[in-house]
Amino acid sequence: MTIERMIGVIKEAGEIMLNARRPKIMEKTGHANFCTETDEKIQAFLISKLKEIFPEAGFLGEEDGQDVFSSKMGSGFCFVIDPIDGTSNFIYEYRPSVISVGLLKDGKPYMAVVYDPYDDLTFSAVSGQGAYMNGDRIMSSEAPLKDSLSVFGTAPYYTELQDRTFDIAKKLLPLCVDLRRSGTAAWDMCCVALGRCSLYFELKIQLWDYAAAALIAQEAGCTVTDTEGNALSYTGATSVLCRARGVKEIPECFR
Ligand code: IPD
Ligand code: CA
Ligand code: CA
């Protein structure tokens, strides 16, 4: 498996997203948690193509009921797929939405691709080999938090986390230039990797949301942990705090 082959498949899947017209929308559990026909189509396409080029790998995809990490995924290779990260954005034609595919090797992030088909932006990383956007090396910002934008996710499907989310956001706002909320967690982490902003947090996201983007961010020099500073598990849901190179400490507001 090479990162170039992985990128090729994911860019092809991007065509499905660009060509989608009024897809059927299905509701899932959790507040305003949707899946569309296009999510399902992209996931099926990715699984069939990636199986062809890497038959020995397993799969964990958001939209096929195979979305629970099992111990057998902790050894060998496993693709973790979010066919559309930013499904609500996609439904409302609000940008961005991305395709996110991480490849775990023995339960650790090994390769990662996040693709934004609208702007044809491909973020990629191989463990230990740096992070790239459209083939150019990227590094996170060295600016201090006070001179940077921060982004956050609202953990929208978990209403019990709203108060804590907005409490942190309120305390974070005066510590930085301003806050943003994009609607896709993978994109947010890629923006920290790229140096557009210096901090991303969200109190609960799933493995498919972070499997690819956390590696890209780490390879761009970011520190990616949960909000308490622990290493990510790569087995399931977690809080995530992604800090650029200039944000040396976990800010007070997370205590
Ligand atoms: C969601 C997006 C959103 C984040 C949620 C995710 P989905 O993924 O990444 O930005 O706030 O936590 O679940 O459902 O659009 O794939
Ligand atoms: Ca997602
Ligand atoms: Ca999704």
What layout of secondary structure does this protein have?
Blueprint: H1 3-19, E1 25-27, E2 34-36, H2 37-53, E3 58-61, E4 77-85, H3 87-91, E5 98-105, E6 108-116, E7 121-126, E8 131-133, E9 136-138, E10 149-152, H4 162-172, E11 178-180, H5 185-194, E12 199-205, H6 207-210, H7 213-219, E13 223-225, E14 238-243
Parallel strand pairs: 3-4, 10-11, 10-12
Antiparallel strand pairs: 1-2, 4-5, 5-6, 6-7, 7-8, 8-9, 12-14, 13-14
Helix pairs in contact: 1-2, 5-7
Bound molecules: D-MYO-inositol-1-phosphate and calcium ion (2 copies).
D-MYO-inositol-1-phosphate binds at residues 82, 85-88, 153-156, 183-185, 202, 205, 209.
Task: Give a verbal description of the structure.
With 255 residues, this protein is α+β, with helices and mostly antiparallel strands. It folds into two domains: 3-137, Fructose-1,6-Bisphosphatase, Chain A, domain 1 (2-Layer Sandwich); 145-248, D-Maltodextrin-Binding Protein, domain 2 (3-Layer(aba) Sandwich). 28% of the residues lie in helices and 28% in strands. The chain has helices at 3-19, 37-53, 87-91, 162-172, 185-194, 207-210, 213-219; strands at 25-27, 34-36, 58-61, 77-85, 98-105, 108-116, 121-126, 131-133, 136-138, 149-152, 178-180, 199-205, 223-225, 238-243. The strands form three sheets. It has a seven-stranded mixed beta sheet, sandwiched between helices. Strand 5 (98-105) and strand 6 form a beta hairpin. The longest helix is centred in the first third of the chain and has 17 residues, at 3-19. The chain binds D-MYO-inositol-1-phosphate and calcium ion (2 copies). One calcium ion is lined by residues 39, 62, 82, 84-85, 87.
